[in-house]
Amino acid sequence: MVNNTEKFPSAEWFKKLATITVQDENYRRYGRLNALIAFKYGETNISCNFDVLDINDIHQINDEELRDVDVVIEMPTNIWDEMLENISENGHATGEWTLNTLDLRLEEEIHKNLMEDGFKADLFFRYNPSLQVFIDNASKVI
Amino acid sequence: MVQKSDPAMTEEIQKNDLSWMDKTLGWGTRARPELNGGGLTIDAINIGVYADIPDHITYRNRRPRGAWPVDVGNIGGYYLQDKYEQWSDVAGLLYEETISRRWSTATEIPWESVVDLPEEIELAICQVATELCQQASVESEVISGWLQNLSPGYHEVKIYLSTAIFDSARMFDGYRKRAMVNGGGMRLESPGKLNRLIYESYAGWSETVLAQYIMRGSFQKSILRYLSVFGPTKADKVLAWRILSDRTRSIAYAIDHIRFAISQMPALRETLGEWLTRVELVQLDEAHDHVLWEALAVIFGGGIHNIDSGMSIVEKLKKDWINDYLRYLKTAGIDRANKIPEPMQKLISEDIGVSE
């Protein structure tokens, strides 16, 4: 039975996602990355360290700590929910539900660096194929 | 592993000179691979005496950093001998990243999806492809031309730029293939004003970096970003999406290099700012050409009948482009927010409503 601490958007849920992803050949095919990325769902912020081909140091952080990460990925909670539903239905995000498309289509971009650092904010695009595989693997989290 | 010599070896030593065998600065240095699958990276081998990356390379020849010197004097080229003129702390990482994240336009783009497009959209995407192709070709030539002028003492930069040239080659081949895959072919050449400025930017490598990677880089990034979402076929979207990753890597080098250069030589903030004024004016002049914007508007709007709607998306693209340009420069240490020409100011201050 899945308890609440293992459900999205908990750190436990992201740890499961990371375990699946680092073994995913499709993820490894896209190559190395180095970025500290926080996923923000409502009041919950989960920080993930994308460390070469590993994903580690996954834990909840507060709003102030968001300033220390390279990229914050944030969207309205209903969009998060619909995106994950789309991924669950299709095994991966389709058309309008990819991170890259949401980032451009929504009124506010979903990626940002809170210190307005253009180098760090661009990691969203530099590693987008890898990040998409990571999120797509939500379909495999039980 | 060093082993004790035996009598046979001693005899061999006497027969041969072998004086080269003690010509080393760092014997016994052993590099170790990175953790987490990174392998033995170019940064991981910067240890011991080999971790010393001087602020100035005293020789102008091909000697690799850390090699035993042979007095051959200076030879042609390699005249950028100062670290601030070329260095970026992330060059080694970007080099490894480019190789690790390598991909092929031949096999990783769903070219089969490029079918049954209305003629006007095929014409429009081929026009955009032609211009991106030409820009990528200019980039390859300009960066290649600089390589011999950069000191081998900063090999991380030289080898990263070699991979950046490969990235620009892939952008060229990707968009040439796009133009040729569905009957559209190569279209009208671009006005090429910024191309010429980039070719002529031999005042300094940092000047070239600003023109090629920050001004043009931010421009291309915006076009690729919008094509990755509004591209007419899956192949167009995937092609732009993959090249977008490559493009942001060279922008990363540029930001980090300019930031480093200014930190070492603060007066550069002023002189590079003057150069940027010229770059911005030339780019603005080129932006008066309507061809690329109309082609993008036809693509984004889904046809000529909907070009007005497409043009409002183009206006948003332009706004994103200038905002990115300013953000990159600010991160690098140059604040141009109140210095860019008026038409650029106007672009980012206007509220652009986008109807789709």
Which structural traits does this protein have?
heterodimer; A: 142 residues; alpha+beta; Nonspecific Lipid-transfer Protein, Chain A; 5-stranded mixed β-sheet; 7 helices; 39% helix; B: 356 residues; Ribonucleotide Reductase, subunit A; 57% helix; globular
Give me a quick take on this structure.
Chain A has 142 residues and is an alpha+beta fold. Chain A has helices spanning 11-22, 25-29, 77-90, 99-105, 118-121, 123-126, 128-136, and strands spanning 33-41, 44-52, 54-61, 71-74, 111-112.
What does this structure look like?
- The complex is a heterodimer of chains A (142) and B (356).
- Chain A is α+β, with helices and mostly antiparallel strands and 142 residues long.
- Chain A has a single domain (4-140), classed as SCP2 sterol-binding domain (Nonspecific Lipid-transfer Protein, Chain A, 2-Layer Sandwich).
- Helices cover 39% and strands 23% of the residues of chain A.
- Chain A contains 7 helices and 5 strands; from the N terminus they run ααββββααβααα.
- Chain A has helices spanning 11-22, 25-29, 77-90, 99-105, 118-121, 123-126, 128-136; strands spanning 33-41, 44-52, 54-61, 71-74, 111-112.
- Chain A has a 5-stranded mixed sheet with strand order 3-2-1-4-5, covered by helices on one side.
- In chain A, β2 and β3 (54-61) form a beta hairpin.
- The longest helix of chain A has 14 residues, at 77-90.
- The termini of chain A are close together.
- The mean pLDDT of chain A is 96.
- Chain B is mainly alpha-helical.
- Chain B has a single domain (90-349), classed as Ribonucleotide Reductase, subunit A, CATH 1.10.620.20.
- In chain B, 57% of the residues lie in helices and 0% in strands.
- Chain B is built from 11 helices and no strands.
- In chain B, α5 (193-199) runs antiparallel to α6 and α6 runs antiparallel to α10 (307-332).
- Chain B is globular and about 90 Å long.
- Classes of the chains: A alpha+beta (142), B mainly alpha (356).
- The interface between A and B is medium-sized, with 27 and 32 residues.
